[in-house]
């Protein structure tokens, strides 16, 4: 194939934002995504898109008005409670950080990118500097490609591109979120809706937390945050598909002294998914440049969730697109150098904030979080 200047690995919000911005600037690219098609992965929770970061990227991409058609401005509120159900603060109404389901954001971006510029079913298995000193990419379907001037790893926490640039690997935080949902058909849906309301409800206590967040469909997604060994759900010590087993684990080992309001969320939870929380470290930031490669989003600066993840990823895409347009595809080394210098500063900040947020959200009581919200 005649290789375009830029290969983007990963078709999530980060990679697709970069693709759309390059499209707007007339810079040739291809996106390589592991999903079989745009319809094969319809999962993911709700994202709050901030005015000065994520929305700015969408504005530059010519998609802000379309975003506002899907954005949920009534879901910006945040309620904090203790483990007995006492509401401590209700805040966030009117913030310029409306929610949108991840699947809707992804579709919005996909619709703005020519279909021929996305290669579905391409799972990257290896990336390297080839014999000609240009990037070489290997995919699980047997395809091997080269000839790109720049490969951008927007391939998430377990990026295959990252290893070209650094030995850094994500470290487990000691905490895992077990995700489940309360759909409208659930017998406790009406009670959940009346108590959780719009936006996000967080209960903190005894080193654990429960997050309940309204989705675009009106259903509620729950995250049960617990301290647990890294591989409990991975090596089948506990089968995550055995719903009753997971319910009993949560009720007996972690949330036995929580109020019925929260225990009922567990009793009626279905289709659990384990989400172990990993992070890179601030010491990992600042790798030496490798000609023809860079990273963006979680691939570059995976952090504990702190409300900034997708917004910083989209900001990475915006800044990188600006630098590529400024210096041109014949001077990508300079573009990447300037992009990474700025990105590293933001990366150190978000990784540090994520680690601080971990201590606040998994505290013995909600007071540290209350102080943060009240300050």
Automatic annotation (TrEMBL):
The record's section on Gene3D superfamilies has: FAD/NAD(P)-binding domain (3.50.50.60)
What keywords would UniProt list here? FAD, Flavoprotein, Monooxygenase, Oxidoreductase
The answer, when asked if Flavoprotein is one of the entry's keywords, is yes
Q: Cite the FAD-binding domain residue spans from the record.
A: 6-330
Which InterPro entries did the record assign? FAD-bd, FAD/NAD-bd_sf
Per the UniProt record, one Pfam family is FAD_binding_3
- Transferase: present as a keyword of the record? no
Q: Taxonomically, which superkingdom?
A: Eukaryota
Q: Name one GO molecular function term.
A: monooxygenase activity
Give the matching PANTHER family.
Answer: FAD DEPENDENT OXIDOREDUCTASE DOMAIN-CONTAINING PROTEIN, MONOOXYGENASE ASQM-RELATED
The protein depicted here goes by the name FAD-binding domain-containing protein
